[in-house]
Amino acid sequence: xPAKRISTGKKKAKKPPRIKVxxxxxxxxxxxxxxxxxxxxxxxxxxxxxxxxxxxxxPPNQSPREGRTIAAIFAHLHNCRLVWLRHSAPHLRxxxxxxxxxxxxxxARRAHRxxxxxxLEMLRQALDESSxxxxxxxxxxxWAPVWPASGVMFxxxxxxxxxxxxxVIMLAHQLGYRLPVPGAYxxxxxxxxxxxxxxxxxx
Length: 203
Known about the structure:
Blueprint: H1 28-37, H2 39-49, H3 70-88, H4 105-126, E1 137-138, E2 147-148, H5 151-174, H6 181-184, H7 190-196
Antiparallel strand pairs: 1-2
Helix pairs in contact: 1-4, 2-4, 2-5, 3-4, 3-5
């Protein structure tokens, strides 16, 4: 018969539980800046898939005074950025404005990249948690009240662009030049846009 194992009274030590380490999450400020950073990617995506014939086509059932062309909408977006920069961050360099009646699609793409980069820097300085901040206010021009530089500043800028981007997609459809699926719906594929920009995925 096998010999009985004599108990020593000592219990076998248990292995310590494995601690799951979660990767560090981006701060709220990082998330807002990354979201604005892909904003221009959305505009560039629409421009890349837009039929050139729609660029200056008159809005249906409207006179030139009543509605903007797609060219004028993109010029408006860029020129509004310049106003925000001039009033809120005059120390940042501003690119040249766009002429809504003459600018080409290539000029609009280039101008949007330039003004988007400067607005991103303006937001970075406005949302900086250190003190003093270089951007302390958000002014949309003499017609509007001045707001403090905060998350509201980001919301207004992003929503303004999203509003007019939707107008462009709708207007192209009404003109008979509907954007293909990658252009019309690609603006909602944020994960792809973040990845293409080399930014970390949220979460």
